[in-house]
Amino acid sequence: MYKFALSSLMKRNIIAVGIISALSIGTLTLVLSNSSIPGDLLYRVDRGAENTWLAITANTNKLVFGKYNLQLAKERTGEIKTLSNSNMVKSATIRVYAASTNADQQVINGLLEDIKYNLTSAKEIIPELSASNQTEFSVDVAQGLTEIAQELTTITESLPETSLSQLDDLVNTIEDLDDTAVDMLAKAEDESEDESDDDNEVSSTLTAKLERKLLKLREEHRIYSALLQQNTAKITPEKAATAETLLQQVTASLQDAESKLATGELKLVADIIDRTDDDLDKVKDLVKVEDNDESEGENSNDQDESNDDDSNDQQDEDSNDDSKDENEDESEQEDEEDDEKTTVTPTPSKVATTSTPKPSKTPEPTEVEDEEEDESENEEEDSEDEDVEGATTRLIELKDILRNRLRI
Q1: In what helix (H) or strand (E) does residue 253 lie, and over which residues does it extend?
Q2: Could you give the CA distance from residue 126 to residue 119 in angstroms, rounded to a whole number?
Q3: Of 212, 227, 224, which Cα lies nearest the Cα of 249?
Q4: Segments making up each domain of the chain, as ranges
Q5: Distance (Å) of CA 124 to CA 62, 135, 142, 148
Q6: Could you read off the pLDDT of 245-299 as tens digits, one per residue?
Q7: Taking a C-beta distance cutoff of 8 angstroms, is the pair 291, 240 a contact?
């Protein structure tokens, strides 16, 4: 009986030890996987655990679900920064994407899509929260988006060109969610009557956000003013005049917002910023020059040059025909003169001989033709250099605009 009891106790202890060991290993695995990045062996484990927790909180606690999506967006941003800095050159036995540049870009593009998904999910739950939870979550969103935007700003320069369109799409999502959070905070600030700690946090967070937005709008004003001067000759006078008027309105609005921010009228500042942002969007559409407009102008120039070449070729052909007719007339006259001179019968001692015509020499290219060929080659090289320079300039402008838009 004692042996049976001892045996049962030992079995229970062994089972307990097994369970504890399994839990410990699982916990350790999750802890290690939490610091992994794409390509690491435990990264799939980390993403699987994240998806499980999202599925649980989506149906049980909307506030936790929203905050967790915000946290995941921060983690994905950190992963992009790590990949961009290391350039994915770790050991190929651990990193499955280390050998392929295309794979690097695909991973980064996938992470940008993940961030967009998380932020979109966070925005969708805001209407389902209570008023107090909306204010709490808006504070988290406002602060969290600033962190995400700052990280993205530092890596914009190192991102491949193929990722910039997706980054632009993500920035649209970030701006949309940030505007929603600021509107919520402005509403809460306007409705608050006491000076509790929560209200102080709302006020300080909102003030910081509005200051950053004003900095962003000032820089946008500078960028679009420069673009207007640069593209004035490429857009219609009506567009240029409208853009100039809007830029003057933006200048006045920014001064008004700064004065109201100094007196603590945060709700009014938020409203002015919204209107100013709309005005700058209109300016952006007015001053930009589409690539197809430039290509149409180039095609028109090419067509004109082609027509000129055809006309010159036709003139050359007509000139050659006239010259040929004159040569034939001269040849006929010479033949008639020869016939008149050779009417005497030749003596037997003299045998008429015919001279073999000398082969004509192939005309060698003249110095003028060589110079024309050199000029044509130089023009082609200059055109290629201008295309490369123009593409590089547009890429730099796009990155500058994206970095400024991330000032939130």
Answers
A1: helix 237-262
A2: 11
A3: 224
A4: 13-191, 210-291+396-408
A5: 10, 15, 16, 19
A6: 999 999 999 999 999 999 999 999 999 999 999 999 999 999 987 654 544 444 5
A7: no
